[in-house]
Amino acid sequence: MNRIQYTLGCTLLLMWSWGNVMAQLPSKDQFINDLLAKMTLEEKVGQMSLFTSDWDVTGPSLRPQYKEDIKAGKVGAVFNAYTAKYTRELQQIAVENTRLKIPLLFGYDVIHGHQTIFPISLAESCSWDLAEIENGARVAGEEAAAQGLHWTFAPMVDIARDPRWGRISEGAGEDTYLGSLIGAARVKGFQGESLKSPNTIAACAKHFAAYGAAQAGRDYHTVDMSIQTLYNTYLPPFKACVDAGVASFMTSFNELNGIPATANSFLLKDILRKDWKYNGMVVTDYTSINEMVAHGFSKDERQAGMQAATAGVDMDMQGAVYMNHLKSLVDKGNVPQAAIDQAVRNILALKYDLGLFEDPYRYSDEKREKMIVLSQANLEAARRMARKSIVLLKNKNNALPLRSNQKVALIGPFGNEKRSLIGSWSAAGDWTKSIPVLAAMQEKAPNNILYAKGCNINDDSLQYIESALQTARSADVVVLALGENWDMTGEAASRSSLGLPGVQQQLFEQIQALGKPVVVVLMNGRPLCIPELDQKADAILETWYLGTMAGPAITDVLYGDYNPSGRLTTTFPRSEGQIPVHYDMKNTGRPFDANNKYTSKYLDSPNEPLYPFGYGLSYTDFTYSKPFLNKKKMKRGEKLNLTLTITNAGKRAGEETVQLYLRDLVGSSTRPLKQLKAYQKVNLQPGESKTITFFIDESMLSFFNYDLQYGAETGEFDVMVGPNSSNVQSIRFELQD
Ligand code: BGC
């Protein structure tokens, strides 16, 4: 035995015989080299296999014998298992029974909270509040870590521009710039300063790549896009996660231009490893290696395993393809041993960084679990985040805020709904703990709330409408809580028509016909096509699914205890026929002209969406001065300053999100009409003004050109500022060599 082996032996002994006592390990490289040298090929393949426990199954298959597999050293990681007790139990199986006692890694979809559920990711993105979003991820990570988890399958940073796709709810909307900032904030929140802290968990940027561009918004569907769109629109949020130090990546289910992402060495090697210098771990999505057979890319699972392993996929989620075929693929020379060693190295490195070799049980801590999970502080953070996620879409004649002496009829299938509040991917969240709108409103205005359900969420029964009309008649104002059921968005939840399901539209029409002011509170996980609501409702609050504290947060906004500040991060189409519609489209050679038939338009719909990207109202009014640019010509390497003054011209304190967009007028390949490049949040008291400055530099003008060269091109640009993407003031300037 040489000295290194001896040291390793001693530390291993210390570690596993003293349980929680932390041991000093050799450096990561040395430790992993030593361990790798001891591992058989079977043990290596074992590390590369991830299986779900039977606590929560998030895909189409389960491997019932997973515990025996762990015992036999055939499993490196487990997902969908949590609580300090259960993870300790499973960890014990691995540590006490396998030859090298390598600890398991526990993963879970901690997407928007763990037990304290925060707003769905799309909702959070509407806050445009990076600090609060980072904090939400931190809280989720802390709760998850206290329940024995090491790793979350988040953030999802897929840009999504098709609201038919149910998974639009899981991301940060349609914009690349904002999506990149939010992805990085979430990574920082989950991972904190150090993975070694028992309060933090490893993040996972998913789904790599371009999953959000599934054809026709149908989940798992084909993706076919230009390489320039891939580079300019879909990849930057992933790159931002790499720059933020994300510990893992997940491949996506889709194919991209004919090659499934799970065997796409252009994505996994050329871009991720070579260009971006990423050195973390790569896991597949749920059985996505196996699915390459159905894609028509692999003749059988064995070939699929070979393709994934050689493309640089480290860990097989749930497919058992590596388990069944990898050893013999290596034995027969179809997969190089070096590929296996690299994959195992990446996996062991993560376990090392998490401190699992020092103490495999350090996260499974029942005392911490009791203290942290669903703590008052966490619930308050969730309520704060929820208030900031709400977007006021309409407010005719100041129908909102309500006054606590008004008689309010709360009507609709979401008035007393609890399950939907926590949305999909609600991790270990317990929906019975979520506070519905009814309870929160009753607490706010104890004697002034009437309630009627009105109808179910998604059936055609009209039986409750009459009594809802009765209830509405005796009120001063109606709050109508409408939307889609939680499982109508998320994975495998695409919809082809985006109106209100069931008879909710009818309920709205009949209530509205009573002539009382009607405030619609929407709960949904995607933009809905709601032109009639927009026309006839007095006020509309988009509340998405706001999590455990949804009811109190909505009530805070309804009664003006919080002045709504959310801004849309996803365009609301007027109708499904406009999809895809997003703010950064191109001009075309025949831009819209109402007087010319032969221009780019519809015969039966305006081009403009119902609500544009960046849109959202407040209970106060903000006015914008004319923006001023310090000079109109800019040399490479220089900066321009744009200044403007924002004034709160209304009667309440409020927060404005000032947005800056840029357009490159002539490019070596055509450029979008505008792209968000910066924004600032400004808090103003009534009557207060603030002057703000934006700096414009070359990086904000840069893009990947036709040959994938990144940089800014000289010529004219328009810089635009305003409260949303379609209401801007513009100034022209020139970039010169
Ligand atoms: C989803 C992933 C998720 C995984 C594990 C898959 O079906 O696409 O987003 O992380 O399941 O639950």
Structure description:
By secondary structure, the protein is of the alpha/beta class. It has 3 domains: 3-369, TIM Barrel (Alpha-Beta Barrel), CATH 3.20.20.300; 389-578, Rossmann fold (3-Layer(aba) Sandwich), CATH 3.40.50; 622-736, Immunoglobulin-like (Sandwich). The chain is built from 22 helices and 27 strands. Strands 11-16-15-14-12-13 form a 6-stranded mixed beta sheet, with helices on both faces. Strands 4-3-2-1-10 form a 5-stranded parallel beta sheet. It has a 5-stranded mixed beta sheet with strand order 19-27-26-21-22. Strand 26 (715-724) and strand 27 form a beta hairpin. Helix 18 (437-444) crosses helix 22. The chain starts with a helix and ends with a strand. Mean pLDDT is 96; it is low at 1-21. Bound molecules: beta-D-glucopyranose. Beta-D-glucopyranose (BGC) binds at residues 58-59, 109, 153, 206, 285-286, 491.
The fold-level CATH name of the largest domain is TIM Barrel
Give the tally of β-strands: 27
CATH class of the largest domain: Alpha Beta
The domain count comes to: 3
Strand order of the largest sheet: 11-16-15-14-12-13
Average of pLDDT: 96
Strand content: 15-25%
What's the name of the CATH homologous superfamily of the largest domain?
Answer: Glycoside hydrolase, family 3, N-terminal domain
Helix fraction by DSSP (H/I, runs of at least 4): 25-40%
The number of helical runs is 22
Terminal-residue CA separation: 65 Å
Provide the list of bound ligands, each named once.
beta-D-glucopyranose
Backbone shape: globular
